[in-house]
Design a protein that fits this description.
The protein contains 31 helices and 19 strands. The strands form four sheets. Strands 3-2-1-4-6-5 form a six-stranded mixed β-sheet. The protein has a six-stranded antiparallel β-sheet with strand order 10-9-12-17-14-15, covered by helices on one side. It has 785 residues and is of the alpha+beta class. α15 packs parallel to α17 and α16 packs antiparallel against α17.
Amino acid sequence: MPLAYALARQEWGREWGLLVMALLAVFPLDIMTSTLFAVDIPLATSSCRPRRSSAARRSGPVVCRSVALTAHAPVPKYTPPMPALVYALVAGNILALWLRRGPFVGGWDLFGATFGVLVLHEGAFTHGVRRIWEAVLNQRGRPVFTGGESFLYGLLPGMLNDAAPWLLWSHLVCLALFVGLSFWLLRRLRAPAWLYWAGVLASPALVSHTIVGLPDLPSNALAWGLAIGWVLGAEQTGRRVFPGLLLDVVVFAAITFVAFNGYESGKTFFFVPIVAALTVPRIPIVRRLGWLACGIAIARLVDAERPGTTDAALAAVPHDAALLLHGVVATLRAYVVDWYIDFPALAIAAVIGLLVLRRNRLFWAGVFGVVLGLVTLNAFQYDGGFLVPHRFLLVGFISALIVASALAEPAAPRAALAAMGLLLASGAVYTTWTTVRFVTGPQSDAPHQNEKVYALPYNRAKLDAHIWRDRIRDATTAVDAIRRGSEPHLFFYGFSILGEDSVNPQMFVSRVLLSLGWDRFAMRTVFFDHGSYMYFQFPIHPLADVPATLARLESRSPFFVHVREPEYSGPAIVARWFNRAHVEPVDLGLTGLRSYRVEDWAPPGPIPIGAPAPARVVAASETPGFCLTTWRQDEGAYSHYSPLYHPGASLPDHFRGILSEAQHPPPGSKRYLAVTHGVTAAPDAAASEPTVVYLRGRLQNPGDTPRVAALQVDADDEVAVAVNGQIVLETLGWKPLARYQEQVALPPGPSELEIFYHKFWHPGGVHVSVTDAEGAPLPATCAGS
């Protein structure tokens, strides 16, 4: 170490010598010397100068060739460990992250493979291809294009899953596409591949996202990389004008198709031909105009087919200079100061690289500037909520290409090379340290208010990307249970459950589907829920299908039933559909679902109702009729909001909170308009606009045995019925007027009947009738205020 310090101090000064000593604590001596002192090799080559005399001019080339050979002679002795170390560190980091992560991947990663599997089994193979083709071509106005509804990231992993069911096919496909594209592109750019991978290693965000199934990285890398590789190919300057122009159109059309198969940011590759037309030297004017035309045409197509997220990003850009500056400062702080987006060493090295590049410097500077401008748009949405790693991957990818090209320059200044080398070394150390910390550190099971768990160190975000490890463990446990036996498994679970929202779904259904494969999934599992759509239709049945499904399963008994609580109630499910079957609670290791083993199933009878809680019995006064509370919702602000949607709670508990808010709505609230309270003789309510109705009445059973009562509900859109807090009917979502009938066995004494109704926009209202076994109406009273 003192020798290294002395040599480094002699070369660069005391501060650099101290830094070399610090790095020696991490890297072996031969690797350090090959990194820090190999910069003298290109310098020695570039220092050859022919002498002014004629004799010197004759000997000049011989002298230069001799110096070059002398300079390159020691290279095999020192440089082979460096590429090997880079590749080993990249592979080691990726492998360690992959093994440590296991099945605990983000829900967004599973959209592509799920979509591919589902469309392949909707009909013939050609039908699946047509569905994906339609999804790729029709992106305008969609809330978001996940990149999964595509050939590359949907059909391909879907076909692989059909061949061999596996949860992580999307992740392997994304890794293979990125690695393959990278090596092809480096060959086109004639830059050493290991220098590029050293840049990737210096970015923990790039390393993490190489194995993420959501195709943020390959979407950007494929589109931008293919375009860059084409315009900077060595054969472009020698290509004939008009055949070259025709080939340009074909190539850019193909890249456009690839880009439209991926995530939205990849479609911005149209800047590459535009920048290249203005900066790449020795290109005929006709082809430059062709590149400009191609870029503008692609930009117009991207604009014509932009989804809702792109519209939102453009609409959020402020027109005030102060706000623009604030966004730029926030971006720099998150990237360079906080290191939340990425470790900044690679981007800083790219800036230095732009200063020393000689070949295509203007092109790289233009591309780098465009990319910085694009990613800065993320600062203006949700108060910087999109300043997250996956939205800045394009910066890291372009930076790695710039650094590799700059380090390959034969006559780059020694100080610049040393600075870039040290930045890459520091990035490699930080990335490896981040990986080690992730692999060895503990992780909690579920996200909490101040703590979120992520699948990988830099696979994180402020609004989404966190995972619920307990939910994922339940999915893995359920898959193991299904594989062990031959019984069917019914799940009361879907997208109405907490953690399965459109911002960050955990995709429990997809985890079961992809792990089992379609054939076993379709044969052995059935899912029921109010929510079956998450950007596309999932194999989740409405609750109305439960009786028909159970009738088909009668000959396949025993079977298992798994109920997600608290959104559903295990006892209420058993009371409603299994009250004449032999049901035993079982423990299969599921922490978020209650499991039952069902034998000798028979069609259910009247739903047995439990006794009311003591608090529900006491009342200060009673008035004949039903207690009625109503309010309207603003059609614009809350036309899609459902007060009956209750993730993380039972419907009665959730709605009590809604009623409390309605009693004292916030000032200016558009969710609670014209709130009214009263008593109605009949449980009816007509509505022609977004309306919420809550009816509550007390029924009496004077006998000592359960009394059968028949409930009939006519309602459009959403309605639910609870007796003594036990749900006996619940149907959520938009639907036209329909009739629902249930029979309940009321316990002796008073019982409280609650009706929850919400209208979106379908014409109708709600009408409820309650009769006894002979068809006579049962009187109700409004108990309390």
